[in-house]
Amino acid sequence: MNNTLTTLSLASFASLALAASTHGAITSVAGQALQIAPPTSALYTALPGPPAYCWNEQSGVSSTAVLVNTIGNGTFTGGSWGPVVAGGVFDSHMIHFDAGQGVAVVQGAVTFSGNIVAVIYENLLLDISDGPLGAAGTTYATGDPFRSHATNLGATSYTVAGNTLTFTLWANSFATWPNKMAQLRVLTDGTVPAPGAVALLGLAGLAGRRRR
C-alpha cells in the first residue's frame, strides 16, 4: 500500500464516531440494479451478476477526512479521479458488480434518502474504507489488487444528480487487469435535525393546527 495514502488513511479515520442513526437508506433502484440486505460475503464470485447488487452499509459515520474519488454532482468517466478529502456525517452504501464469467456491463440507477456527497471506486480507497464504512458482518475483498478499478475508471462511468446515481459498470473476470469487479461505495448526507430542532418543528405543527 502506498505509504502516503496509508498515512492519510490513518488520519482520515482517527476521528470516526458512530451515531445512533438508521435514517440513511436506498429508496429505489432501476435498470440492472437489485437491492439486497448486506451479504455475508462480497468477495469475488460470491455475488455473480448481472445484476449489480446494492445494499446499505452504515449510518451516521462522522469523520473530518475521508479519502474519496469524487465529490458532488457530475458525470465521471474514463480517466482518473481523486483521491480527494471529504468531511462530515455520512451514510454509506455499496453498489457491487461481479461479472461472473467473461466481460460484462450493467446499467442502472440507485436513489437514496439523502443527497450524495461522495463516491469511492478505487481499489485502495475501498480497502481503506471497508472497516470504518463497510457493513458489519460482510466480508469484503480488502487487499485484492484486482477487486475494482484503479484510479482510472476505464469503461465504467457514473452520474451523480442530487440523491440519484446512474451507472454503467464494466468488469472482466477473465483478465487480471484492470478489474474483476466494479464497486462504488456511495456516501450520502448523514446529518439529521438535532432533537431540539425536531421538537420545535413538532410545536410549530401543533401551533399551526390550533390556528386553523
Uncertain parts: 6-22, 194-212
* Secondary-structure element string: HEEEEEEEEEHEEEH
- Rounded to the nearest angstrom, the distance between the terminal CA atoms is 64 Å
Count the E strands.
12
Approximate strand percentage: 35-45%
What is the overall pLDDT average?
A: 83
Structural class: alpha+beta
Count of helical segments?
3
Rg is 18 Å
Q: Give the biggest sheet.
A: 7 strands, mixed
Oligomeric grouping of the chains: single chain
Total domain count: 1
Helix content: 10-25%
Global shape: globular
Structural write-up:
With 212 residues, this protein is an alpha+beta fold. It has one domain (3-211). It has three helices and twelve strands, in the order αβββββββββαβββα. It has helices spanning 3-12, 123-133, 195-211; strands at residues 17-18, 26-31, 33-35, 52-68, 70-71, 74-80, 84-98, 103-112, 116-120, 152-161, 164-172, 181-189. The strands form two sheets. Strands 1, 3, 4, 5, 7, 9 and 12 form a seven-stranded mixed β-sheet that branches. It is globular. The termini are far apart.
